[in-house]
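Late entry, evening session. Most of the bench is empty. Finally got around to the prediction I had been postponing all week. Sequence below, unchanged from the version circulated by S.P.
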Amino acid sequence: MAGRTLRNRRISLSAVAVAACATLTLTACGSTKDTAASGGGGGTGKVGVILPLLTSPFWQSYNDYVPKMATSEGVDALKTVNSNSDPSQQITDINNQLNQGVKGLVVAPLDSAAIAAGLDQAERKGVPVVAVDVAPEKGKVAMVVRANNVAYGEKACQYLGKHISSGKVVQIMGDLASVNGRERSEAFRTCVRKNYPKLKVLEIPAKWESDTAASKLDTLLNANPDIKGIYMQAGGVYLAPTLQTLKSKGMLKKTGQAGHIAIVSNDGIPQEFDAIRKGEIDATVSQPADAYAKYGMYYIKAAMQGKTFKTGPTDHDSEIVKLPSGILEDQLPAPLVTKDNVDDPKLWGNTVT
């Protein structure tokens, strides 16, 4: 789903966490404290970093964080590569990086299934991979660095459900080829169905594409001018087209005004924070771009050193869980941001210049 240098990193565990971690071995519970490596490699060598796209302010921020966090974690990262929203290009990018002799890869998968081909190539060459933001459906990765995307959909549902008694709400979905898009979508609709039966969910499959979101939202509003709420699954690509579409129809009303459409987003970019301050949207879930970069670098260095991890709480306020595929995922915290906490200096969106 924090600050540019993670100034508020927590280094202590609760009593329960300590008890849990005491039973584990190796780099237990995902601790970021230095421990002896369980394998060879020494963590040296070039690391390739592959981005899914650069048309979103979120990924632009992540891209800016990567070299800073690589330096702070002691990782020799190459210049990032942009797959430009093309899953097949991403496999080519992985091949190119492997052919350049990288010793580790940090990849933000575009397609949870298609990425397996690239992961298989890396495994054949003995190159560890850390996945950021999106979990692969299969294939070998040392760790997935990601926030809980089910919680994204649930938080959006709960916010809208508490502020809208009945009526139509729209969720502008991400790419359903990505586990992120599927989890956010299903969590939102399931939460509404279970907890707020007077709300009717209308859906726009927009594939993380701003033009698609704008066009389909325009059509939907023509047929449903009585919309009460909107859930945008990615503010980085959906915020601007959504606000522009509402404005063009005279439907962009500020919070507190008659006819205001409650809007909840995901990402935590500065533009969303500004929109919250202006009363144009109500809330967003802050997806930790800085922590994605930091722990992507941390885990790839650990994997290159032969370290492994087990499930349990970490020393950075997250928890490592095992996915149904058997892959481990470090689920980083992603807070809900509203007008009450939008100016919190610990939010990474308030540290971007």
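Two things to note before I forget:
The longest strand covers residues 167-173.
Residues 1-29, 31-41 have pLDDT under 50 and may be disordered.
Will write this up properly tomorrow.
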